[in-house]
Amino acid sequence: MSSSNSKLGEDFLHVPKLAVDGENWTTYKYRMLWSVDARGFLGHLDGTKKKPVDALTLSGRGASWSPSTMDEIRELTAFKVTMKEWHMGKAITKQQIASTIPDSLFIQVKGLDTAQEIFTYLSNLFEKHSRVVSVEL
Q: How far apart are CA 9 and CA 6, in angstroms?
């Protein structure tokens, strides 16, 4: 996390816990989006931040490939840095969600790989409920 993110303070980025029945889904959803955006990780939640392409998977390269030119060494180094940043953003965003959902929901989403998959799962689970509640009001 960058120093600018740590200066914001946890209260500023706090997202209230999602109710087990999703009663507060609409408020939770937007507070989560805003909080994650303030941290600079919105792309992990909405799916626009894609996993970097591994240099080893490019055409003509395989598991036994190793860089032999300076350009290839720079490419591989850049990939490693980008991949580390991507993993950190993914982990922080997943933890932001995990810390704000009840254990019963965590059990349902713990096997999903990305924050986007988790957020989409929760959205699919509670969007209909939110529409029903708003119609009843």
A: 6
